[in-house]
């Protein structure tokens, strides 16, 4: 399998351009990140150009972390802020050639939140389409993000149907699905047409993929058998320096 280093967690002890270079040196095929906004896009672009890696995706800003907020797009009454965050993410994505923006929903519930999320996602998709950018939504597990609006893949697919835009896709994070829903390989196969990106980490501790409840060599082989060839996002917490945690890569790359 091809692999993408999620620099929100891997090498997050160094500036993003240095993390991109570290990912290239370690043999990753691509990178992805969470919130790159403190780093000028030109510096990220230089590192991507130097290494030949593509930034697959980035997230919209979460909002006010002191509240805390975890995204704005499902917050009724916050449409102006949500759309500013979407515009900012799309502009940054365009500047660095990133292919996707994960629009974060936020802590919310109920019909008004659903309506706000659908409307803001339609806006995001319509702004992103001329740029060739995919919009992603990602269910987060209720243990790590209690109160987050988007929890299950069924909920995500329902929203994707309602928004009804070809560039809206599901970010299938095997870690979150493993913690909330289980049945990971069956769900991957069933949802394949709606999936825009796949991420992984051990369940339940979000560490390296060579331990835990999910057998990742089996999961990766199942993903390969589905014909998926986009780099898979390694989004695990290394718990210290990243390089010593990469022992799982060689086997994954052989699949
Ligand atoms: O799984 C995650 O936490 C990330 O993919 C993300 O984008 C939200 O923080
Ligand atoms: Mg994820």
UniProtKB/TrEMBL annotation:
UniProt KW Isomerase keyword: yes
UniProt-listed GO biological process terms: glyoxylate metabolic process
Protein name, as recorded: Hydroxypyruvate isomerase YgbM
Active site: 138 (proton donor/acceptor), 235 (proton donor/acceptor)
Source organism (scientific name): Pseudoprimorskyibacter insulae
SUPFAM superfamilies given in the database record: Xylose isomerase-like
InterPro entries for this protein: HyI-like, Sugar_Epim/Isomerase, Xyl_isomerase-like_sf, Xyl_isomerase-like_TIM-brl
Domain of life of the source: Bacteria
Keyword tags: Isomerase, Pyruvate
Gene name linked to the record: ygbM
Family: Belongs to the hyi family.
Molecular function GO labels: hydroxypyruvate isomerase activity
Limits of the Xylose isomerase-like TIM barrel domain: 20-250
EC number: 5.3.1.22
Annotated TM spans: none
């Amino acid at each position: 399998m091809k692999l993408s280093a999620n620099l929100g967690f891997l090498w997050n002890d160094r500036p993003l351009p240095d993390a991109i270079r570290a990912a290239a040196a370690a043999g990753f095929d691509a990178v992805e990140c969470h919130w790159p906004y403190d780093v000028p896009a030109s510096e990220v672009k230089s590192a991507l150009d130097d290494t030949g890696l593509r930034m697959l995706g980035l997230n919209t800003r979460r909002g006010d972390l002191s509240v805390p907020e975890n995204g704005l797009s499902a917050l009724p009454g916050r449409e102006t802020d949500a759309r500013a965050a979407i515009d900012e993410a799309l502009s940054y994505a365009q500047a660095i050639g990133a292919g996707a923006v994960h629009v974060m929903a936020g802590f919310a519930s109920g019909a008004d939140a659903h309506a706000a999320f659908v409307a803001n996602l339609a806006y995001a998709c319509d702004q992103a389409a001329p740029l060739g950018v995919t919009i992603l939504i990602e269910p987060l597990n209720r243990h790590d993000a209690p109160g987050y609006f988007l929890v299950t893949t069924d909920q995500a697919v329902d929203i994707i149907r309602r928004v009804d835009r070809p560039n809206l896709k599901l970010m299938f994070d095997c870690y979150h699905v493993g913690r909330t829903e289980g049945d990971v390989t069956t769900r991957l196969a069933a949802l394949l047409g709606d999936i825009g990106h796949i991420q992984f980490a051990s369940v339940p501790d979000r560490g390296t993929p060579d331990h835990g409840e999910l057998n990742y060599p089996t999961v990766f082989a199942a993903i390969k058998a589905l014909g998926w060839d986009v780099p898979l996002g390694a989004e695990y917490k290394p718990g210290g320096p990243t390089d010593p945690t990469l022992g799982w890569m060689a086997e994954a790359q052989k699949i």
